[in-house]
Amino acid sequence: MAHITIKSPDITLDEPTLIDGLPGKGLIGKLITDYLVSTLEMEYYAGVYCESIPPVAAYRSTDPRVRPPLQIYADETRNLLVLVSDIPIPASNAPDFAGCITDWLNEEGVTPIYISGFSETIEQNETDHPERLYGLTTGRGEAHLEKAEIASPHHAGIVTGPTGTLLNQASDDGLDSVGLLVKSTDTLPDYEAARIVIDQGIEPITGIEIDTEPFVEQSIDISPVAESALQQLGESSDGSTRAQPTATFH
Questions:
Q1: What sections of the sequence does the record tag as coiled-coil (predicted)?
Q2: Domain range 3-245, CATH architecture
């Protein structure tokens, strides 16, 4: 049975926002959440335990404490949570994982921001649609997109992988959530797409100021964490989240 265990009960949060960091196209969520944990000095808040997820031991730089591969970090001052995953979530485990997470989000009054990269087809005209960031919503999440002035997608499509399952579960349960879709590359961790999500999505939605200049500078070298996650995704494509356009019939 999947469950979430609070490790820092002294942290008090009031209807916080959660940033999704599941590995996916361009490793965008992974790059963002690892950066936020480090830059904002977030505290380890909870462990996420799911059946069939490999019980590997995760640890972070300069910290000897062993943690599960799925972790939630908190910033009490900023009323912020991030979901960090050090392994891909296999598609076969996504429904159980999404059900567990969504139940907890509902119980705790958390509004999640889910992140996915996508590629447009050659036929789609970037001159007509220059935006790189688009938004999806469930529940009453549309108000967040209006506040941040994030455009709706100009194409029909689907979000696959665990993040797609989370969005589907949020829709079924009526949970207020936001999905951020950003144009991304296929080959390398996409730091520029991650910066766009922070600057144009996370900052205006949460009202939290985040300095992305040091983050952009990291794009010169691929971090060991990102390189490892990229390799895992290449070996286990069913755990990769991505948004993809679909045919539209008129």
A1: none
A2: 3-Layer(aba) Sandwich (3.40)
